[in-house]
Amino acid sequence: MAARTRTTAKDRPSYRCTECGWMTVKWLGRCGECQAWGTVEEYGTPAVRTTAAGRVTTPALPIGQVDGRQATARPTGVPELDRVLGGGLVPGAVVLMAGEPGVGKSTLLLDVAAKAASESARTLYVTGEESAGQVRLRADRIGAISDHLYLAAETDLSAVLGHLDDVKPALLVLDSVQTVASPEIDGAPGGMAQVREVAGALIRASKDRGISTILVGHVTKDGAIAGPRLLEHLVDVVLHFEGDRHARLRLIRGVKNRYGTTDEVGCFELHDEGITGLTDPSGLFLTRRDEPVPGTCLTVTLEGRRPLVAEVQALTVASQIPSPRRTTSGLETSRVSMMLAVLEQRGRIHQIGKCDIYSATVGGVKLSEPAADLAVALALASAASDTPLPKNLVAIGEVGLAGEVRRVTGVQRRLSEAARLGFTHALVPTDPGKVPPGMKVLEVADMGEALRVLPRRQ
Question: Are strands 14-17 and 40-43 parallel, antiparallel or unpaired?
């Protein structure tokens, strides 16, 4: 009787998620770790090999003898981008910038490429999505013309590496990494294998030659960066370019930064002549009026470590349908619904539940932090009673379901920003700390005390 062959664990095929690296012994359509669909692929078990010690390329040194000047950031000429990067671009650093289509990534990076170009530091802009003529027309429109800015339209990785040998740039901008492919790798451009190969080759070239590289990445319908998660781990900096295409405001957030903090946010304004940085963006989020209007309240939000004064607007209308409408823009619908429930139960404003409620922010800013709760609640109460809040008043605080007003972080920075813009009165939670000169602060512990700022109707 023939001996029965036994399949060992080493001979079994195994499967791995290309996004997060999760492993399983059988194929699944959905990753059990990151929940991504269609990313589990079979791979063979590599043979166990031992790597012999090789020749050392650079000797190890005591850390105090390592030259740190090689990692000194060089300004890009765009202060708002330098703020997020931590001072500028470091030679050899690779930056991944992602954002929705039409948000202005190509416009901003073309402006950065032109301003960073100089006689001693050339810039190479490689476009894989547009022709060279299209990019030239955009450069004429935004004034991004420089003798030291080189432009190439390529979708082949070997050609891009050839341009690096010819131009010898100090800065490379690739728009975008999903459009470039390597002829040595099977698969269409933008696939998992192609993105890994293209990014890996450009990262190696950047490190070897000391070139600062900016890669433009696509995003999925959920807003996440498209491609393998490995791409975000390989690069040094990951930036998200955000903004509503119908508004002028654009924000750059740092998600990962090996050379600085991720708390900084860069603000830009998109207009017909291009995109410009905003050192004082609060003016976009305010409506200047001679007299206060019912249903409006100002607050100070923190974008990273940056305080921004924003305006919340609310409108209540008698509903003509059994189920009143709840429409929001720039605010979280769930938090607005919570504020309505608190006002009705704790603030004794019973008529508000039977009205159609419309709430929004000004200028396209999105308020998601709990510190805007008090401003949202006061705007709703002001609209329901048709009485305006006092002029030059800002409201800062988180509101709980019990009606209490809770403390938030950065109250002093928020009050300093409000005082700088000329606001003289503020509603804040108890114990706000040091108050800026000229600012009158009213500490409130619950919504009952906060609603007393509404003037009584005659």
Answer: antiparallel
Instruction: Please report, as a single letter, which amino acid is at residue 224.
Output: A
Query: Each residue of 278-336: pLDDT tens digit?
Result: 888 877 777 777 788 999 999 999 988 889 999 999 999 999 888 999 999 999 999 99
- Retrieve residue 259's tokens: 């050379």
Residue 41, beta-bridge partner list: 16
Tell which residue, 393, 382, 367, 395, has the closest CA to residue 316.
Answer: 382
pLDDT of residue 458: 41
266-287: burial string, b at 16+ Cβ within 10 Å, e else: bbbbbeeebbbbbeebbebbee
In this structure, what are the phi and psi dihedrals at residue 417, rounded to the nearest 5 degrees?
Answer: -65, -40
Which amino acid would we find at residue 277?
G
Q: Which residues contact 334 (CB under 8 A, 6 or more apart)?
A: none
Report the pLDDT value the prediction gives residue 228, as an integer from 0 to 100.
74
Length of the chain: 458
**Are 109 and 151 in contact, with CB atoms under 8 Å apart?**
no
Between the alpha carbon of residue 70 and those of residues 78, 83, 90, 213, the distances in Å are: 21, 20, 8, 16
DSSP 36: -
CA 155 to chain centre: 27
Q: What angle in degrees, to the nearest 10, is found between the helix axes of 105-116 and 132-142? A: 70
Instruction: Judge whether 235 and 93 are in contact, CB under 8 Å.
Output: no
For the CA atoms of 255, 261, 263, 266, the dihedral, rounded to the nearest 10 degrees, stands at -80
Using DSSP's 3-state secondary structure scheme, residue 345 falls into helix
pLDDT for 50 equals 73
What is the rounded distance in angstroms from the CA atom of residue 208 to the CA atom of residue 302?
39
Residue where the block lists tokens 């512990």: 445
Residue ranges in the chain whose pLDDT is less than 50: 1-5, 7, 9, 458
Tokens 């410009």 sit at which residue?
Answer: 276
The neighbour count for residue 380, using CB atoms within 10 Å, is 28
Residues annotated within the binding site for ATP are 99-106
Amino acid 5: pLDDT: 46
CB contact at 8 A, 173 and 95: no
List binding-site positions. Answer: 99-106
